[in-house]
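TICKET: design request
STATUS: open
ATTACHED STRUCTURE:
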């Protein structure tokens, strides 16, 4: 539910969400970048709002055109709106958890600081994103296991890109760490426009 001016192809999000044939037991999730998008998504009966910001200050500014403080303030409003609406869940996707193409390594402490901020708001789902395909299995296993140990009540999702052919290896490492939720895309489509050279997401078929 982005601005129709920014991304015209997504201007009919309400129509899709309202009129899609819903399968019982399936959670219908939509990306929501701001409070206005949240209003539209909630009105269209979206089951879960997915919010995005980056744990890298440089990447957040490049991709969202906001400082991290500005992003957090806006997303905190969205969380409050979802909580005020009955049965609308929230998941926060944190970009560049496993490395940033602009800043390099991102300290685990910095990642966990942002996780804690959203947990403190009452968010029940966090996605740890390998936005550009920089992650490797031992890193994934260690960080994911530490996150699950620290926040056992949070539903963690892992989001990998296959830039270096490591996507499935990283999925297996996350499974070993106890994760059972993953982002994937049909045919491996998708990439970040602010991450030059990054390829698509892990392929659903695999």
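STATUS: resolved
RESOLUTION: sequence designed for all positions
ATTACHED SEQUENCE:
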């Amino acid at each position: 539910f982005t601005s129709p001016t920014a991304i015209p192809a997504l201007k009919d999000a309400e129509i899709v969400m309202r009129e899609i044939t819903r399968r019982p037991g399936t959670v219908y999730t939509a990306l929501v970048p701001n409070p206005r998008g949240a209003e539209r998504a909630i009105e269209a009966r979206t089951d879960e709002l997915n919010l995005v910001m980056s744990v890298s200050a440089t990447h957040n500014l490049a991709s969202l055109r906001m400082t991290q403080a500005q992003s957090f303030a806006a997303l905190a409003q969205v969380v409050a709106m979802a909580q005020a609406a009955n049965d609308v869940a929230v998941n926060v996707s944190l970009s560049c958890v496993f490395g940033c193409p602009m800043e390099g390594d991102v300290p685990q402490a910095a990642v966990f600081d942002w996780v804690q901020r959203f947990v403190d708001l009452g968010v029940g789902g966090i996605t740890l994103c390998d936005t550009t395909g920089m992650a490797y299995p031992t890193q994934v296993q260690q960080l994911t296991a530490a996150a699950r140990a620290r926040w056992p009540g949070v539903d963690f999702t892992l989001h990998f890109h296959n830039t270096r052919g490591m996507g499935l290896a990283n999925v297996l490492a996350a499974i070993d760490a106890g994760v059972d939720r993953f982002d994937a895309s049909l045919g491996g489509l998708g990439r970040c426009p602010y991450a030059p050279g990054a390829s698509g997401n892990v392929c659903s078929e695999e």
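CLOSING REMARK: Residues 60 and 171 are 25 Å apart (CA to CA). DSSP finds seven helices and six strands in the chain.
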